[in-house]
Amino acid sequence: MKRFFSVEDVINVYDIIKEAINLKKNPYCFQHIGKNKTIGLVFFNPSLRTRISCQKAAFNLGSNTWVLNIHRDSWNIEMKDGNVMKDTQEHLKEAISVMNLYCDILAVRTFPHLIDRDYDYNEVLFNKILSYSKVPVVNMESATLHPLQSLADVMTIAEFIPFFSKKKCKVVLSWAPHVKPLPHSVANSFSQWISKIEEIDLTITCPEQYDLYEEFSNGVYTTYNQNEAFLNADFIYAKNWSSYINYGKILCNNNDWMITERKMKITNKAKFMHCLPVRRNMVVEDSVLDSPNSIVLQQAENRIYASQIIFLKILQSLS
Amino acid sequence: MKRFFSVEDVINVYDIIKEAINLKKNPYCFQHIGKNKTIGLVFFNPSLRTRISCQKAAFNLGSNTWVLNIHRDSWNIEMKDGNVMKDTQEHLKEAISVMNLYCDILAVRTFPHLIDRDYDYNEVLFNKILSYSKVPVVNMESATLHPLQSLADVMTIAEFIPFFSKKKCKVVLSWAPHVKPLPHSVANSFSQWISKIEEIDLTITCPEQYDLYEEFSNGVYTTYNQNEAFLNADFIYAKNWSSYINYGKILCNNNDWMITERKMKITNKAKFMHCLPVRRNMVVEDSVLDSPNSIVLQQAENRIYASQIIFLKILQSLS
Amino acid sequence: MKRFFSVEDVINVYDIIKEAINLKKNPYCFQHIGKNKTIGLVFFNPSLRTRISCQKAAFNLGSNTWVLNIHRDSWNIEMKDGNVMKDTQEHLKEAISVMNLYCDILAVRTFPHLIDRDYDYNEVLFNKILSYSKVPVVNMESATLHPLQSLADVMTIAEFIPFFSKKKCKVVLSWAPHVKPLPHSVANSFSQWISKIEEIDLTITCPEQYDLYEEFSNGVYTTYNQNEAFLNADFIYAKNWSSYINYGKILCNNNDWMITERKMKITNKAKFMHCLPVRRNMVVEDSVLDSPNSIVLQQAENRIYASQIIFLKILQSLS
After folding, report:
1. B65 annotated ligand binder
2. Is residue A2 in a domain?
3. ipTM surpassing 0.85, yes or no?
4. Does C68 touch chain B (CB under 8 A)?
5. Which of C41, C61, C67, C73 to mutate against chain B (most B CBs within 10 Å)?
């Protein structure tokens, strides 16, 4: 693997899930591959899970990490080309090129601004980073995608439903209310990964005007009726996102969309999923999040092995 | 050892001090136990000594660490249960549960707010952390206690006075002036630890209305007369704290309480102790801090071995 | 080597350059020397290259690092002696003495304030740090010098021009415009290092009143005519600095001093050098920085081996 920007960089989704599950059973067995390797973790935005799970994944591989919080630890970065840099201290090109020199893999987080849809959906910033980088780049959440999260998510589903043995299951990605306009990356990426797994039947449910960008939800059944969606569901994945059509806007904040115990009863005793952090009693009721059917911590734990299998694949391709 | 919240989690104080002193002589001899272990260091508040000495202790054990500065690296944490999380991004329950997944020991620092005495003295926040955590938790200073500091402190005294051979010594914990209301944790914890060592005769001296909470200073002779206290002292431990009775208030800022060269002459050539950071010429005169009898750096050095023996005991109990 | 404050701490500049070049070929071969050693990296100011390249250098040696951002991770530091510390929380003396206890080498960055020339040029702050420290101190950029940068710079030149075989070359250090008053450390230090290498003929070019402090540019030909300087140059090192004579002031912001493609044509197909970060189209035109003759990334890469050879020399002298 030469980079990990999206599911498209994975040759076979089934295989990578199996390998991640195996790694979880024996996490320290590849330290000969990670030895003397350095993974640089660069954050343009805050992080808890991604920051620490990637460090843990690198430790498991016997690799070193460094962490750089752009804007706080270092300099103001110029993103545009050709400017006279009166107000910025370092151009992205130099920043990325230099960080390249000090690591074997460069993992980067850059959130969207949710203002200019074309800029975000063309992944202008991340594509620049990819073009400037000579070492493999790993997407720790870009403007439109969060593939490490999605790999952990499908791995978690695989641990519960043996879709490897062809058993079908119904997964619902449900929009839920929030006070701030949020990126689409978790939802986009989840939808994109699930579409590679035949045994999973995905339904998206959201208020009108909250449809996801069709490229990532291609062929997925979307309904504006949450109750209908929940019927017979095996997994409910809750997530807020801002509007794609009315880009970055909050068009609905209807509490009725919150995931409640009552709604979970419509389902087929569904497992509850969320990528975290989650706002309790806004996105989901306490009683759902705290119930035995909540598997949000399994998802969080699998973040380690999702990162680790990707780092491992890349390190193996280096040698 | 399954957790380290206070001295009460230590089976035998004499033994742990001896083991810490032995570890100092041979700090790298337990790397087979620390291998592939990860110690998470979580700071709700700033830190210099604790931050770095815990990292060094983990290095000595051959373990990895990650450091998370809550509020800065990650998200605003909700501390209350049942709230609709309009203003906070992640609940403490998820934050702790997730951090658990990425480490073998979770060490946490949370200062008191010094506003609500019951909240602080019931250790509401730290108890929540303990209840949410499935991995062993280490107290890197909570609302009322700082046991890693105290273990380093008694270890330092033990290096000077062989109380293992039953020699008695007099230790004075002296209040000293400060401009800001400070927590009681260092004083409480020191008093609590010393009370476990028969050979040490502790005297507390402070202005009226500055008595420590009796649970931690049970049976300790307290006097409002600093000069009387200093008479024949072998160790003077200086520390400011705010009032317990008039909770969190500064009732006295009398410079007369500063530890001076003149006062040290009353003592039995006492060693001068402080946990650092210390405000010079407010808490203590330069000439005392810079004298050969000042052992503040030995205390700081022993912070490594205090943390290391605790981490080691916990790691040993895991396997 | 017992400390690394400037080139004067290096016994033989030719030897250290050769050793750094050899280390680059085989960076992991000294891990037996770095094992169980800890390098503390202390930043009073922001950093990207220095921060990460020093971590990488330590990793290469098999050593641990901790990073402390003063003022952000820890406490406000008192720099003056004898003060009643009403507004500061910890004196530099304790901060340095304590950090000493937790590492084998202490690397420190402290920028000048560019207000009081005597304070800066007497290196008052760094000299205090040196005097307080019992472990070897490495200068990661002080008020007047940046020797790790300079070692990387001369190493880079050596990789292009075999001055070890007595071939002469012409190097030009050219002032260039900037919006903010910048330190002199990179320019001072570069000049000081180059002066130790007989085969390099250094010319400094800058506007009037921008002459560097003569101690560091002793015997170096300085001209206010940039075009004249560029004639037959083999290397152009661009750098802004504020005035030394009119201390810390910006006296000129003439765009004519920017390094352009047109000016590079005057040279002997010179390599373009800069320490980074660089403001594009202010200090240097895009087309020069992006040309094949730009060797700024080689300089940045060599920062690893400059730090690593210095850390190695110091660690070797410890045992």
Report:
1. no
2. no
3. yes
4. yes
5. C73
Residue C228: φ, ψ to 5°? -60, -45
**Window C:178-217, CB contacts with A under 8 Å:** 179
Among A269, A294, A297, A299, which residue's Cα sits nearest to residue A284?
Answer: A294
Residues 6+ apart with CB under 8 A from B6: B139, B145, B147, B189, B192
Residue B68 lies inside a defined structural domain of this protein:
yes
DSSP-based three-state secondary structure for C76 = coil
Residue A66 near chain C (CB below 8 Å): yes
Q: Do residues C157 and C293 share a domain?
A: yes
Question: Which of B61, B77, B101, B135 to probe the A interface (max A CBs under 10 A)?
Answer: B101
CB-CB under 8 Å, B277 with C90:
yes
CB A44 within 8 Å of CB A110 = yes
Residue B315 region, left (φ>0) first, then alpha (ψ -120 to 50), else beta?
alpha
Strand boundaries in C35-89, DSSP class E = 38-43, 64-69, 77-78
Same domain, B185 and B51: no
Please give the sequence-ordered ranges of beta strands (E in DSSP) within chain C, or none if there are none: 38-43, 64-69, 77-78, 90-91, 105-109, 137-139, 169-175, 200-205, 221-223, 235-239, 271-273
Q: How far apart are CA C107 and CA C307, in angstroms?
A: 10
Q: Where are the alpha helices (DSSP H) in chain A?
A: 13-25, 31-34, 49-60, 92-101, 117-121, 124-132, 147-160, 185-194, 226-230, 261-264, 286-289, 296-318
Amino acid identity at C257: W
Q: How far is C309 from chain A (nearest CA, A)?
A: 16
Helices and strands of chain B, counted as H and E runs: 12, 11
pLDDT tens per residue across span A210-245: 999 999 988 899 999 999 999 999 999 999 999 999
Selected residue of B31, B48, B111 to mutate for chain C interface (largest C Cβ count, 10 A): B48
Burial class (CB within 10 angstroms; exposed 0-12, middle 13-18, buried 19+) of A96: buried
- A132 with A211, same domain? no
pLDDT in tens, B9-30: 999 999 999 999 999 999 999 9
CB atoms within 10 A of CB B27: 18
Residues in chain A with CB shorter than 8 Å from the CB of B72 are 72
- Answer whether residue B133 shows pLDDT above 90: yes
User: Cβ–Cβ of B90/A47 closer than 8 Å?
Assistant: no
Return the pLDDT at B46.
84
If asked whether residues B247 and B123 sit together in one domain, one would say no
Q: Is residue A22 domain-shared with residue A88, that is, in the same domain?
A: yes
Write out chain A residues lying below 8 Å of C286, CB-based. Answer: 81-82
Question: Domain of C113: which CATH number?
Answer: 3.40.50.1370
Q: How far apart are the first and last CA of chain C?
A: 11
Is residue B57 located within the same domain as residue B176? no
Smallest CA–CA separation between B82 and chain A, in Å? 7
pLDDT tens string B204-253 = 999 999 999 999 988 899 999 999 999 999 999 999 999 999 999 999 88
Per CB-CB distance under 8 Å, the chain A contacts of C276 are 90, 94, 98
Query: Nearest Cα to A300, choosing from A289, A315, A313, A311?
Result: A289
pLDDT at B59 over 90: yes
Residues A1, A310 contacting (CB under 8 angstroms):
yes
Per the structure, the complete domain to which residue B174 belongs is given by 148-299
Nearest to B75 among A55, A277, A296 (CB): A277
In a domain, A254, yes or no: yes
Tell whether A125 and A207 lie within a shared domain. no
Is A47 annotated in some ligand binding site? yes
Contact A47 B84 (CB under 8 A): no
Residue A132 sits in the same domain as residue A181: no
Tally the domains of chain C.
2
Average pLDDT over residues C76-101: 94
Distance from the B32 Cα atom to the nearest Cα atom in chain C, whole angstroms: 14
* Assigned domain for B65 exists: yes
